[in-house]
């Protein structure tokens, strides 16, 4: 569209019409066979993955459609989510087992009698649990921002979404965008939710991925078409899932003080040589809490541990979590500059992926420092910036 032919008011109208037409034509659950990946820009695989943690939740309430759409717009390679279940067995995107901290449940008088206390990973927790609400009831709630220091203007505007709706957002993206769903609190969910024919949470989870065409080992043709990493803190869930799908899996590792939720193994046990040898039969990498890679004391970084070298020696990728731009989340070493934090983790520590609350910042950092290879997810913007650089190099020699 040439702006010299069409004046600005005209082109805006045209754009709006285009948007309306697109929205109307967009199926809610596109079937994989109907999704044409052929011409879409592929996943970049030449630099560490930009994993949009709960969507762009630094800006928009976590795990909502809008947080994910924003993350895609900002350049995420993968959109990340936590899968839990409703009472009636529908898988939803939601982080906490309770609704209290990120929805308007406190103001919903009709649900006041649903408050319960359950043991969750060895701790008695009181609140409103997703597993005590049907999907219809959950859909009537509205999500809010978790942290008081973040933008509150979107509170009360967006609904909880289902796993299937999340998948539709990824499949509907204008380029190939991977998904990174977590089998969240599987012990608790299997205790509280029952599916027909004795199916488990993990069966339902993998079944949903397969229904939408997610399959294939890491870097296979099928995987590159619809990239996915399945993540979990529970080794038994990963091992069980590996019997159901060859999609790549990531073993999440918590703080050094926290034992695994299913097998009650210590941090030291699950990061031993012996255990890495065992778990690498099932997973392609680990997702450690970042302080286990580089501990911090009084908000200053200490010497890095050998976790990354150790994982790489076992041919395991490392995707640490979670990177946040705000001052209160940045160690003093980075001088309140999130780009310096990315620089350190990518250049010095050598990680393979990063879970970030601010996908846009990581994307801009990576575009500035390592534009993707044109045949590997590079786009016209990159070609244009390269031409621009060449022009700058050449211009001093031009006769004016
Ligand atoms: C949780 O509360 C129940 C009932 O009061 C109690 O029996 C149980 O020991 C508690 N569990 C933990 C881990 O504190
Ligand atoms: C809400 O968040 C606070 C602070 O992180 C936490 O201590 C509390 O357990 C959470 N409440 C519920 C019901 O999950
Ligand atoms: C995997 O499947 C096989 C064959 O169905 C079964 O014998 C085995 O117990 C399963 N393993 C796990 C961890 O579920
Ligand atoms: C988990 O392991 C610790 C340390 O070995 C032990 O003290 C604790 O009782 C175990 N918890 C469960 C639930 O088995």
Topology:
Blueprint (H helix, E strand, L loop, with lengths): L7 H18 L23 E4 L12 H9 L4 E8 L5 E3 L22 E5 L2 E5 L7 H5 L23 H9 L6 E6 L2 H7 L8 H11 L9 H5 L4 E3 L2 H8 L6 E5 L13 H4 L2 H7 L5 E4 L7 E2 L2 E2 L5 H7 L3 E2 L19 H12 L3 E4 L2 H11 L10 H15 L6
Parallel strand pairs: 1-2, 1-13, 2-6, 7-8, 8-9, 9-12
Antiparallel strand pairs: 2-3, 4-5, 10-11
Helix pairs in contact: 2-4
Bound molecules: 2-acetamido-2-deoxy-beta-D-glucopyranose (4 copies).
Summarize the structure.
The protein is α/β, with parallel strands linked by helices and 400 residues long.
The level 1 CATH classification is Alpha Beta
CATH architecture: Alpha-Beta Barrel
Query: What is the fold-level CATH name, i.e. the topology?
Result: TIM Barrel
SS element count, helices: 14
Detail the poorly predicted runs. Answer: 1-34
The residue-averaged pLDDT reads 89
**Proportion of beta-strand residues:** 5-15%
Radius of gyration based on Cα positions: 22 Å
Overall SS class: alpha/beta
Could you give the distance between the termini? 33 Å
**Total domains:** 1
SSE arrangement, N to C: HEHEEEEHHEHHHEHEHHEEEHEHEHH
List all distinct small molecules, including ions and cofactors, that are bound in this structure.
2-acetamido-2-deoxy-beta-D-glucopyranose
Going by CATH, what is the homologous superfamily?
Phosphatidylinositol (PI) phosphodiesterase
What's the total number of strands? Answer: 13
* Biggest β-sheet description: 5 strands, mixed
* Envelope shape: globular
Helix content: 25-40%
